[in-house]
Amino acid sequence: MSAPEKERVRTQSVGDLLGDVTRDMSTLVRQEIQLAKAELREEAKSAAKAGGMFGGAALAGFLTILFVSYAAWWGLSNVMDQGWAALIVAAVWAVATAILAVAGRARLRQVRGVLPRTQETVRQVPGAIRDPIRDR
């Protein structure tokens, strides 16, 4: 603490000092909340992208099964029984849908559920409060 700050502390009343501490704590809490909100916005964007990938996987799977499966089933039914042809086509598209779902799940796992910067600054708060008191 510098000499002017020490002099200011000596001349202030206890009420003024408590007011300063209260104001500083309020500012700190507001800043921590703002940081947490910013981090949550970033993570929500990543989660939204992963959700979009799941939606795309579902739509692609549906349209693929609807249009391509019929054509493949029809083509395979020329060389084998229709039942076996339908089963083969369904198995192929089930694998394709599973691959898309796994890719979306992997992307969703990249979303962190914790707020690392906020956690770090919150850990620093007790030290920041104690250190100025020790400097007196």
From TrEMBL:
TM segment ranges: 50-72, 84-103
Pfam families per record: Phage_holin_3_6
Domain of life of the organism encoding this protein: Bacteria
InterPro entries: Phage_holin_3_6
Keyword annotations from UniProtKB, A to Z: Membrane, Transmembrane, Transmembrane helix
The protein, known as: Phage holin family protein
Source organism: Micromonospora globbae
